[in-house]
Specification:
By secondary structure, the protein is of the alpha/beta class. It has one domain: Luciferase-like domain (TIM Barrel), CATH 3.20.20. It is 37% helix and 15% strand. The protein contains 15 helices and 13 strands. The strands form 3 sheets. It has an 8-stranded parallel barrel with strand order 1-2-3-4-9-10-11-13, surrounded by 7 helices. The chain has a two-stranded antiparallel sheet with strand order 5-6. The longest helix has 21 residues. The protein is globular and about 70 Å long.
Length: 456
């Protein structure tokens, strides 16, 4: 019997501490080399050796300044600060690999859509169609201030802006150049037919553009679209735009319920639920035996930074936990940051009472989601529970770099391949063709990117 294969992205960030505050001090963690391009090239080669589908690079443009009303804890603990741009890493990693996809986060706050459209097209050309974009609206109030605002626009307003931002991008990527615009006619000396390139005109509430796309059509035109919103408005956005959805829950049932909600909304929009993949956040700690894996986990837990963890939690949730007793239970509070983030700890997981200390330990070793601990076969069993719950794959983070990935690739990947759960060889084609063979390199109707194409 053919078994549904799992999809894997290696989840990282161009900084020292991504999801494991405190562990950067260890001799076996090499994220302090994040400024060294060789570090990233070696990482990409490792992940491709492990037959992962891609590398998913997170990013924030702002500082974690909620905890204690200051960014001091984040700065001192290197908790996603300092942080460099993820986009600039991709060409070097792509040149060192052949099949690996590269998804990266870029907020709608960072670039005007006209500028961002060219950046994406350039990357898609340089990687031969291996680019994915994680559409985010930002969640740190400091981001808004950095870009000249009093803070972030209201939560649902940011999604309204994102809808329009994507509309402008789709027009530039999909409608500005005809399929046969590039002639490359050496005899006549004509590279592009001027009649096959047109301006797009957009005048909306938030953006205005009158001009043609500056880049010729790339292999995918529109990159593979990732999305990670967990609120009701976020699931609406994912159902409209998303192809790959990043899910963060404390157990499989939470992730599965989220994917069901997104797919139900896709059906109402006329989109095929098979046209989206759900990637659950996980971190795996494995060893030759369960005891060996548990010993690693216990060792890491001893070096978790309490303040670093709560600095991250403050940014994600928008709630300052610095004034609370470490043993005080935490309740869900709606904020302007990542809606439902605390909900994944509290109301969504009612079987336990979460204290501040519990959350600090959970975030310190696991970041935003669960940690799987065990021998390779046990990890594979736990991953299958997520698939059974309704997700399709995983954004896998790490405790230490590169050891966590090396252990997984050398131990768990062969087990998954033997079970028919993980690819042993890469398919040819663009990232979209690898993930969605039934779609091809370009998005089709009724996705809004396809609906932006006019007749020539």
């Amino acid at each position: 019997m053919t078994r549904k294969r799992m999809y894997f992205n290696a989840f990282d960030m161009n900084c020292i501490v991504h999801q494991s505050p405190g562990l950067w001090v260890r001799d076996d963690d090499h994220m302090v080399d994040y400024k060294n391009l060789d570090h990233w090239v070696k990482f990409a080669k490792l992940i491709e050796r492990g037959k992962f589908d891609g590398i998913f690079l997170a990013d924030v443009v702002g500082t974690y300044d909620v905890y204690g009303g200051s960014r001091d804890a984040s700065v001192a603990e290197a908790a996603q600060f300092p942080v460099n741009d993820p986009m600039l890493l991709i060409p070097a990693m792509a040149a060192a690999t052949e099949h690996l996809g590269f998804g990266f986060t870029s907020s709608i706050m960072q670039n005007h859509p006209f500028t961002f459209a060219r950046l994406i097209s350039t990357l898609d050309h340089l990687t031969k169609g291996r680019i994915g974009w994680n559409i985010v609206t930002s969640y740190l109030e400091s981001t808004g201030r950095c870009y000249g605002l009093d803070g972030l626009p209201e939560h649902d307003m940011r999604y309204e802006m994102a809808d329009e931002y994507c509309e402008v991008l789709y027009k530039l990527w999909e409608d500005s150049w005809a399929e046969n615009a590039v002639l490359m006619d050496r005899e006549r000396g004509i590279y592009t037919d001027p009649a096959r390139v047109r301006n797009i005109f957009h005048e909306g509430k938030h953006y205005k553009v009158d001009g043609c796309h500056l880049s010729e059509p790339s292999p995918q035109r529109t990159p593979v679209l990732f999305q990670a919103g967990a609120s009701d408005r976020g699931t609406d956005f994912a159902a409209r735009h998303g192809e790959c959805v990043f899910v963060i829950g404390s157990k499989p049932e939470i992730d599965g319920a989220y994917m069901k909600a997104v797919r139900d909304k896709m059906r109402k929009r006329g989109r095929d639920p098979q046209d989206i993949l759900g990637f659950a956040y996980i971190k795996a700690i494995t060893g030759g035996t369960e005891a060996e894996a548990q010993a690693k986990y216990d060792d890491y837990l001893e070096q978790v930074s309490y303040e670093g963890a709560l600095a991250l939690m403050g940014g994600w949730s928008g709630i300052d936990l610095s004034g609370l007793d470490p043993d005080e239970p935490v309740e869900y509070i709606k904020t302007n940051a990542v809606r439902t983030f605390l909900h994944s700890f509290t109301d969504a997981d009612p079987d336990r009472e979460w204290t501040v200390r519990d959350i600090a330990s959970y975030v310190g070793i696991g970041g935003a989601g669960p940690v799987l601990v065990g021998a390779p076969e046990q990890i594979a069993d736990q991953l299958e529970e997520f698939i059974a719950a309704g997700v399709d794959g995983f954004n896998m983070s790490y405790a230490v770099m590169p050891g966590s990935f090396e252990d997984f690739i050398d131990g768990v990947v062969p087990v998954l391949q033997q079970r028919g759960r993980m690819q042993s060889e890469y398919a040819e084609g663009t990232l979209r063709e690898k993930l969605f063979p039934h779609i091809g390199p370009r998005l089709g109707a009724p996705h809004p990117a396809a609906e932006c194409r006019r007749e020539w």
